[in-house]
Sequence to fold (477 residues):
Amino acid sequence: MHIESRTLLMLAPRMLSACLLASLAGCAVLPEPTATQVQSEALGHAVIPGDWASAASTGDVVDGWLASFNDPALTQLVHEALANNSDLQITAARLDQANAQLDIAQAQLKPGIGILGRSGSKPVADLVPLLSGAMLRLSWEVDLWGRLRYGRNAALASRDASNADYRYAQQSLAAAVARGWFFASETRQQLALADEMVVNAQALLELAEQRRRVGVSGESDVVAARTSLSDYENARQQIELAHLQSLRALELLLGRYPSAGMLASATLPAVPGPVPAGIPMDVLNRRLDMLAAERRVAAAFDKVGEAKAATLPSLSLSAGYGRLSNEVLETRNGLEQTLSSITGTVAAPVYSGGALTGQVELRTAEQKQAVADYARRALTALGEVEGALGSERILGERERILKASEASSREALQLEQTAYRVGKSDLRAVNQRQLAVHAAQVALVTLQSERLSRRVDLYLALGGSFETAKAAQNPAG
Fold:
C-alpha cells in the first residue's frame, strides 16, 4: 500500500486551479457601509452641531490623562487592575472567541484535504475481495454567490468589534479605578475631619463641666455638650463604614481580596488644567465603544448578504487520487491500480418551508437593530460629553463658593468660642458654629472629589486614552 507523492504534487495544483477558475466566475460581495454612511443612516434625524453647546476648551483631544493627576500610586493601581481584574479577563476571553470564529470562517473558503486509508484481511471463505490502499481527497465549496465570503467578513467585523470592546473595557476600568481611588481618599479625609470634630466636642464637654463647677453655667450646658459629642461619634462611625466600603470596592476592581486593608491617600490631587474637547463628530470617531457599534452594523450587513446568498444554488468540487490493491487474491496480476476522480455537485434549494426567507428577514431585522443601537449609543456619548463639560464650569464655581464659606465659618467659630470662654455666649451657639464649619469642610472635600471624578468622566467621554500612544505600545517602558 503506497501513494506516489510526486504524482500527487503534480495533480494538486491542477485541481486547485480548476476550483479557482470556478470561484472567479462567482459574484463579488457588496462592500460594507463606511463609518460615515452608518452615521448618516443612524443619525439622519439628529442635527450634530459643529461645536459643543457647553463651554469647552479648543484643541484636539489628547491621550495620557492618567499622568495629568500626577499620582504615582494611582498609576500603579490602574496597571494592577489591568492585570488582575476578572471582568477585563472575561472581555479578553470574548476577544479570543471572536478570533477563533474568524479562523473558522476563513477556513470555509479553503479546500479541505484528507487521506483515506484501508488495510486488513478476511477469512479465505469470504469470497468478497478486500480492497486495500490509500487515497488523497480534496473537497471545496465554490463560493459562487459570496455566502462564505460574507460569513468571513461578518466574523472579521465581529472580531474588530470585540477588539474595540476590550480596549474600551481597559479605558473604563482605568476610569473606575481612578474614581474609586478618589472616593477612598475623600472618605479618609472626611474621617479625619470627623475625628477632629469628636476631639473638639470632647474639649467643649470638659469646658462645660469646668464652667458648671465654678458656677458660670448650669447642667443644661453639660447635657448639651454630651449630646453633641454622641452625635459626632455616631457620625464618625458612619463615615468609617463608608470608608471601609470604598476600600473594599476598590480592592475588588484590583482583583484583591476585599479586606479593606489598603491605605488611601490622605489628600486629593489637584484638578488638572482645562481639557481640549475637539468637536462632537470627533467623539464618534474616537470612542472605542462607538467603533464597536459601527463594526457590529457592518457584521449585521454581511450576515444579511450571507442569508440572501444561502437561497441560491451551491457548487461543491471534489477530487481524489490514490492506489488500491486486492490483497486477497494475490495470484492474479494487475489488481493494483491507480485511481483518480474529479466531481462537481450542484445543490439548489427548492422548498424549505420558509426557513431561508425567514433567515433573511431575521438578519435584516438584526441589521436595523444594530443601526438603531448605534444611534442610541452615539447620542448617549454626545450627552455624556455635554454633561461633563457643563459640570466642569458649575463645579468650579461651587468650589470657589464653598472655600469662601468654609473660611467664614472658621472665623465665626473662633469668635463664638472666645465669647463663650468669657461668658458672653452659650454653648448652643458654639455647637452651631462647629456644625457649620464641619458641614462646610465635608462639603468642600466632597466637591473636590466629585470634580476629579467628573474630570475622569470627561476624559472617558471624549475618547481619550489613559495612556499615551508610546506607553500603550511599550507598557514596560
Confidence is low (pLDDT under 50) at residues 1-13, 15-25, 328-332. Residues 5-473 form a domain with the Outer membrane efflux proteins (OEP) fold (CATH 1.20.1600.10).
